[in-house]
Amino acid sequence: MSQQEILAELAQIVNEIAGVPVGDISPEKSFLDDLDVDSLSMVEIATAAEDKFGIRIPDDDLKNLKTVGDAVNYIERAGVSV
Amino acid sequence: MKPKVLVTGLGATTPVGGDVASTWDALLAGESGVRRIEADWAADLPVQIAAPVAVDPGEVLDRVEARTLDRSQQLALVAAREAWADAGLGAGSVPPERLAVVVASGIGGVLTLLAQYDVLKEKGARRVSPHTVPMLMPNGPAATVGLDLVARAGVHAPVSACASGAEAIGLALDLLRAGRADVVVAGGTEAAIHALPIAGFASMRALSTREGDPREASRPYDKARDGFVLGEGAAVLVLETEEHARARGARVYAELAGAGMSADAHHVAAPEPTGAGAARAVELALRDADLSPAEVAHVNAHATSTPLGDVAEAAALRTALGDAAGGICVTATKSCTGHLLGAAGALEAIVTVLSLHNRTVPPTRNLDDPDDDVQLDVVRFEPRALPEGAAALSNSFGFGGHNVTLAFKAV
Fold it and tell me: Which end of chain A is less packed: N or C, by CB atoms within 10 Å?
């Protein structure tokens, strides 16, 4: 899966859970500061991403995922199996 | 001297209407919101009727906004926004430090609790929603409304089963009289139509098991009554000090003149048979409102359609109102709406306020053969006119032995 494909799938998840328009979701955006995704919704997004990409995101890693780009890189490195 | 407290905004979403206007019209026409539950989960229940809201909150609220709110919170938000707009208030109309919220629920987020328990059992702990706790806590609806309207004078959620909505309004009255807020958004909400609450109430033998047309099951004061019908919905009032309301030129529906509260300390669920505790709540409300029984033209009764409760309340009214009881017309809103538990007292407060404001009392549905032990003038078949300048009471009682009476005066 390419970074573009991961971004597209992740954007769908963020849109579904937090209502952020897909077009607003780009790698440099901060989940909290730019997209207004609170910590509870972030947990939901992580759970949905785990299911979607077949990975596991431990809490210690989740707290370091500040931007959409951070998440895309993490998912890519985690070895997408889907 | 106590400052006067006025009702300046009304909002509701109920089994007979998605807002106050449609609910009022349906009540005047004696329409019922009770229907058969067609869902699979009801197939094996001893009771398969309920009174769901006429307009689903999902049709009104934004999808993303709704998905982190329990249904009880969604309903409260719909009613609160209607009440706020109805009062002529907008964003920032009241300084947050002078605005309080008191929104009660009898049971809280039971639908969320049960749904997430299913997730826990089927998918494991990691799949339980991070929104579970804020959605199931009984103060959740008050918090939702407080966040939406930006209320910082205090956000409260009294819990007293089926008296909760009325107790919220009584607490709001206290806050305004004590000078802790200028405006209070107060009411109740409930969303508990699910197999477990229905099974629990049915095991208590509290629910109607009447066969046939579901619309005939809720029949307060009728000889053939056999229990209440579980309803859902929310009702919210905007209450203000007279000074605040007059200063902004607010439209006034009625005065919230007083409240009376008592407890039975008799049994956790059964009504005290003589109605002594309920009578004391009525007497305290009259005293608080500086009313004599002869000044009361109307009572919106708690009357849920249970065999014991309806006659105990009737006895309480005859005790508290004495000779004046015969000249007071009574109605039972639950004949149309079913029992909205923690929202019931708030909805019936709105119906009482509108009865005074419109000088018309909606009829009690399904009262074909009045119980001889009731001995009250219950309005049936057609609405009844009220005189100008009347006062009215609204009763609410809850499991736990909670008794609340609210007193309103026409303005």
Answer: C
